[in-house]
Amino acid sequence: MSSGKGGELIPSSSELDLDRPNIEDYLPSGSSIHEPLGKLRLCDLLDISPTLTEAAGAIVDDSFTQCFKSNPPEPWNWNVYLFPLWCCGVVIRYLILFPVRVIVLTVGWIIFLSCFIPVHLLLKGHDKLQKNMERALVELICSFFVASWTGVINYHGPRPSMRPKQVFVANHTSMIDFIILEQMSSFAVIMQKHPGWVGLLQSTILESVGCIWFNRTEAKDRETVTKKLREHSQGVDNNPLLIFPEGTCVNNQYSVMFKKGAFELGCTICPIAIKYNKIFVDAFWNSRKQSFTMHLLQLMTSWAVVCDVWYLEPQNLRPDETPIEFAERVRDIISVRAGLKKVPWDGYLKYSRPSPKHREQKQQSFAESVLRRLEEN
């Protein structure tokens, strides 16, 4: 990844193919390097050497792209003994479990809306009672969502309490992280603003529990959000604040750098570690390749969502510690508990790519260095 003028990352108009890096993109074009006649070129070596091709692919397919890959399970059903069992499983999941789960979620929404709308409209002026009832109803609908996936969630540690000057931070795999945590205790979350029906829920129902939304492309939003975070964390009656400091969904195998914003508020940080069991379904949401609606359908047509949640020991900023060091220390705690591999990448690089000119210069430099080493040997 690289930066343009002023050090700003240059957003791409097209999506990065994170799952399938193309080696040819990292090779110089014919017009970018003028080789003397008779010289051996890198592209020729890649054509004749499978080993060198594999090595170049390993360079391209680095630890950054691995953080955002969906790793499908190994196929197990393509033999005469197991294929009939697999077919039976498909019938059960799609024709029995899925309709039942749709009914459960529909009933949940009917109950929720029939209670939430009167509470929201008729209890204005009774702030404390209204807040308590809305919190309970949001927890209820989240429980229906978890039930629609046949969620098996194991919570470890004391249940979060409502206190001022405390912030909960967790690793981030999918938007369902919020649903799983919300059904246990009502949180106010800071989250990217989404379009469609998810955005409608954000701007209506979830704002009732004090959630804060941002747009990562708007610089002014960052200043506003920082101000709202400070105000919210000081409130005695506000819901506990939940932040996903990675800033993007990671595939529950790695942990990318934590943003320091949550660690500059002067609050007690309460780490939460979330680990999904992939034996039944991969809960990672690749938002570049899948809408959230399709992600929910994938969960509802799986056998179950199995997950462990650990509420870890609260942490405070040490006298000789910077906010960045504090963020790294908390990331260490979460990564160890959830069994995640730490990588030194900023998750926001997922949404940007280098300019064509800079990328061509890097390609040329890479090719020249490889050719130089080959000539020396």
UniProtKB/TrEMBL annotation:
Protein name per its UniProtKB record: Phospholipid/glycerol acyltransferase domain-containing protein
Pathway recorded for this protein: Lipid metabolism
Main location: membrane
PANTHER family documented for this protein: GLYCEROL-3-PHOSPHATE ACYLTRANSFERASE 4, ISOFORM D-RELATED, PHOSPHOLIPID ACYLTRANSFERASE
TM segment ranges: 78-96, 102-123, 135-155
Gene Ontology molecular functions: glycerol-3-phosphate O-acyltransferase activity
Matching Pfam families: Acyltransferase
Record localization: Membrane
Region (Disordered): 352-371
